[in-house]
Each structure stands twice: as C-alpha cells, then as structure tokens.
C-alpha cells in the first residue's frame, strides 16, 4: 500500500512540473509575460587615456592689428549676449548671409589646413599654430582665442575628450582619433565647423564610432527645413544611433551663430521637449552631436575646459554652420572642391553642402 501511495504522489508531482514547464515556455515565447532581456555587453575600458600636457606658448599667438576683433578679444568677456527667450531667433538679412558665407568659407579653409597637419608625432599645439596662421592669412580672427579666457585658436579633442580640448605639447599617437574644431570671426561674423581625423591607422572600433557619428549628423541636417521644430533634431540623432550602444552627449549643445559666437536657438542632440523655436528661412545655427562609445558622463580637467568621458571611452563629433533656405538647408562651412575626402565620405560617394526638399 505504501508503495502505491508514493507512486501516486510522484505522478502528481511530475504532472505539476509539466504544467509549470509549459507555462514558462509559453511566457518566454511571448504569451502573457515579458521575455528576459539580456544586458548589452559594455565596451571594454580603454587604458590608453590622454594626459594633459603643457600649453605653449604661454602668451596668445599674435593677431595683426588690421584684423577685426570680437568684443571679447582683449579681456575674454563677451559684451553682447542674447537674452531673449530661446524660441526668438534672428532672421539674417541677405547682407548677413553674404557675410556669413565668407566667414564659413574661411572656416572651412582653415579646417582643411589644420586637418592636413594631423599625423602621428605631431602635437596638437602644432595644429593650433597652423589653424592660427591660416585664419589670420584670411583676414580672420580665430574665434576661440580668449573667448572666456580660452588660450588657443582652435579646439583639439583627442580620443576620450568630448570637446573643448586645449592644444598642448603632447604628440598624437598612431591609432588616435581627433576632432579639430575651428571658428573664425571675419568682418564681424563667425563661421564654425569641426571634423574628425584619423591619426594613421585606427582600430575598427574607432572607425565604427566615427562613421555612426557622421551618419547621425547627416540625418539631423537632412531633417531641417522651414517650419520644422528645432526640438526634434535630438530625436533624429537618437533614432539614428539606436541599437549601436552609443550615446549622445547631453551636457553640450549646438547653437545659433552670426555676429555673436553663441546665440539662439539651442540645438539639443538628444530627445527633448524644449521650446527652442521653429525653423525659418534666414536662421543660422550649428548641429554638432558628440557621440560616445560608453558613458556620456564627463569629468572636467583642471583647465576648466577639457571635458573627458568618465570611463575613458572614445567620443566623436562633426559640426557645420547651417542656413535654412526656401527649400531646405545649406552648409555655410561645407567642403570645397579641393577639400580632401574622408573615408566615411568616400564610402558614401562624396559629401553634400545643400539639402533640398
């Protein structure tokens, strides 16, 4: 008798286990419960982190007297600021646009010259010297110079530096990636652009980051036309990088530009609901997403400018000064016929300077 009761209890237990198994299988197949998601593997931490060097020369590079200067050139403090609500955006006149085209072309020529200097063993200070000389040769003041005390004529952001890297005496190494950010002030108007450069041969991981950053930047530009809200640019960027594991930096943004270095609108590179206005013909602004392979949380170096990723992950960025036109958008800092093609442009059959709807 005892054996028979034990057998019945075992049979009941087996039946219950089968029910539980089937219910679990159904749930995992999507019937009634959420499937367990695997956590995405974080990229391995990089160990070749950049250290601050010495910023030389200790005095600013000279600018010839005949070149028009912005109002902060002497003491570092901008006198004119735009205090209007963020949705109130200046519409440039035909004369303004003509002057901004000239500033944008000069900025592009300076960026091409600085980019040509990027090589293993070259210091970022040497790149700054090239940028400075190229700017003044075009009758332009290098806009970063003494802006809120910034000591150099361009920004050079290497590897894990997100933005605002100060050129110094540390040589670039084979495998580095560097963003060179150029702004010039020519005859009363600013032109602002930046681009990524490979230092010799770089790893596939860095190539993928740069290519994705370029792609999301291009999609954000393509979105722009009269009547569209500026706040939607961030969503376009985030949608473009979705599934890659990359993240778009939230601490820094694009901006309006013209006679002022920074003005309305603010261009946020992440999904947002900020009332930053509606695009209209004659608006000029920058789109400049900073995309990180790991965390977007940043540390600030003691120089109070250089922002680096907290995990040492690399970051990439591109930037144009843009003009809203009747039928779309135009890059005032677009590449010229003699501008060198970058690898990510070659794979796409070239570059664009206008996007018409």
Automatic annotation (TrEMBL):
One of its GO terms (biological process) is proteolysis. Residues 98-326 form the Peptidase M24 domain. Its EC number is 3.4.11.18. Its cofactor is Co(2+); Zn(2+); Mn(2+); Fe(2+). Keywords: Aminopeptidase, Hydrolase, Metal-binding, Protease. It is an enzyme of class 3 (hydrolase). GO terms for molecular function: initiator methionyl aminopeptidase activity; metal ion binding; metalloaminopeptidase activity. The keyword Metal-binding applies. Binds 2 divalent metal cations per subunit. Has a high-affinity and a low affinity metal-binding site. The true nature of the physiological cofactor is under debate. The enzyme is active with cobalt, zinc, manganese or divalent iron ions. Most likely, methionine aminopeptidases function as mononuclear Fe(2+)-metalloproteases under physiological conditions, and the catalytically relevant metal-binding site has been assigned to the histidine-containing high-affinity site. A divalent metal cation 1 binds at residues 181, 192, 319. A divalent metal cation 2 binds at residues 192, 255, 288, 319. It catalyses: Release of N-terminal amino acids, preferentially methionine, from peptides and arylamides. GO terms for cellular component: cytosol. It comes from the Eukaryota. Belongs to the peptidase M24A family. Methionine aminopeptidase type 1 subfamily. Cotranslationally removes the N-terminal methionine from nascent proteins. The N-terminal methionine is often cleaved when the second residue in the primary sequence is small and uncharged (Met-Ala-, Cys, Gly, Pro, Ser, Thr, or Val). This is Methionine aminopeptidase. The lineage of its organism: Eukaryota, Sar, Stramenopiles, Ochrophyta, Pelagophyceae.
């Amino acid at each position: 008798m005892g054996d028979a009761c034990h057998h019945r209890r075992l049979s009941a237990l087996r039946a219950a286990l089968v029910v539980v198994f089937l219910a679990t299988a159904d749930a995992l197949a999507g019937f009634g419960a959420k499937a367990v998601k695997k956590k995405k593997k974080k990229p391995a931490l990089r160990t070749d982190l950049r250290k601050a060097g010495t910023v030389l020369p200790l005095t600013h590079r000279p600018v010839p007297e005949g070149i028009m200067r912005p109002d902060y050139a002497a003491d570092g403090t901008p006198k004119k600021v735009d205090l209007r609500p963020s949705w109130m955006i200046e519409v440039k006149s035909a004369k303004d646009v003509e002057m901004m085209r000239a500033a944008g072309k000069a900025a592009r020529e300076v960026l091409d010259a600085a980019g040509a200097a990027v090589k293993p063993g070259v210091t970022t200070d040497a790149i700054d010297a090239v940028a400075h000389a190229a700017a003044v040769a075009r009758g332009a003041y290098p806009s970063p110079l003494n802006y809120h005390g910034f000591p150099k004529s361009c920004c050079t952001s290497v590897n894990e530096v997100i933005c605002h890297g100060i050129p110094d005496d540390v040589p670039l190494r084979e495998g580095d990636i560097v963003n060179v950010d150029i702004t010039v002030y020519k005859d009363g108007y600013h032109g602002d652009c930046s681009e990524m450069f490979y230092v010799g041969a770089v790893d596939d991981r860095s190539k993928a980051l740069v290519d994705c950053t370029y792609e999301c930047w291009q999609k954000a530009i393509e979105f722009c036309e009269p009547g569209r809200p500026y706040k939607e640019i961030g969503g376009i960027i985030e949608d473009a990088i979705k599934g890659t594991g990359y993240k778009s930096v939230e601490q820094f943004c694009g901006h309006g530009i013209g006679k002022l270095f920074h003005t309305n609108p603010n261009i946020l590179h992440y999904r947002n609901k900020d009332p930053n206005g509606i695009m209209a013909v004659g608006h000029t602004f920058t789109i400049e997403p900073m995309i990180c392979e790991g965390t977007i949380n940043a540390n600030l170096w003691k120089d109070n400018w250089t922002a680096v990723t907290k995990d040492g992950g690399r970051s990439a960025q591109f930037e144009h000064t843009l003009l809203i036109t009747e039928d779309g958008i135009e890059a005032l800092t677009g590449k010229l016929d003699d501008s060198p093609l970058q690898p990510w442009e070659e794979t796409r059959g070239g570059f664009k300077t206008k996007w018409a709807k």
